[in-house]
Input
Amino acid sequence: MIRFESVSKRYPDGTVAVDELDIIAPSAQITVFVGPSGCGKTTSLRMINRMIEPTSGKIWLDDQDTGTLSPAQLRRGIGYVIQHAGLFPHRTVLDNVATVPLLLGQNRREARGRAMEVLERVGLDSKFAKRYPGQLSGGQQQRVGVARALAADPPVMLMDEPFSAVDPVVRAQLQDEFLRLQGDLGKTIVFVTHDIDEAVKLGDQIAVMRTGGKLAQLASPVELLNRPADAFVAGFVGRDRGYRALGFEPSGELPTRSEPTVLLGSEAGGVGSTAQDGWVLVVDDTNTPQGWLSLATASTGQITPELLHRGGTLATQGGSLRAALDAALSSPSGRGVIVDEDGRLLGSVTAAQVVERIEALAASRRNAAAAPSSAAEAAG
Ligand code: ADP
Ligand code: MG
Output
């Protein structure tokens, strides 16, 4: 069991990322933290393994105050999986996975044996073991990330949007396999996502967070869908309930607005006037989006890939409304990036604009249902 007791985090610049969080994540269950980008999900997760220290409050692991354990000792019992897998590019898949058992004192042969075992568990054929991460697809890399986290057989797993960067079909496969795996292993899991569909599918329990790092509701999926605690949760959940059905509808021409950009490799110093609200989109010389730059964290020096926030997904003009909404909700600036079929930047949309589209579509469906003859006309 993991218990947050009045946990807050204020960053040195004054940002309150997490505000008086009280949550219990029961043993052997999946607790999902869900909410829009910037609501404090990653900060909450990283406070569990003390990659980030709380400003106040305590986090308990069973009956131990994690603040009294050494971070190294604490992390031995906690696996950690992130969005882009975070694999070592110059080590083979096998060696990536064997890293943790080696660190824990197993000899090379034992560690590799264990690595092969978990690779198989996550559904990766042994032929991938000798490859390097760059030679795998995104979905395969995520499997390796999960295998690495499982290698030391930790009782607790922390997962930060592990499936968000892969396409929807692979994402659904990874989710299914993850549930099957958890059925066998029964770990205590805290899983972060911005996607309410994913939360509902995976969570035994869901914590909905709102901007400012406040808990809006902690409930089972069914309870959340049937009895949202307030307008915010109803909006977040309800909007998605609607777009689950509408998600596969093509978005048509979205009302994109042009998004100011800066070039990767240029100087951050000149960016200030370009940024609308502290975030500026970075592109390469073919106008392909590379990620967002926060002026709060980088206002001088050269803009390098390491500085970029790559969390957000991209949506293609004419793609699904679901993908467009996903792009907006996952973007740290709140502006979803829309690209053409070659991946070149077209502009951005806000979640509000996409929701407007969805609501208009839903309204026209209702009208069509109410007046069948005119619907037939429209369809004809
Ligand atoms: P999420 O994972 O939900 O997108 P985060 O936990 O990453 O949210 O961030 C929560 C808030 O804290 C955001 O406003 C973010 O900009 C801010 N933040 C995150 N890391 C830092 C940092 N190192 N310094 C200052 N502010 C930060
Ligand atoms: Mg995050």
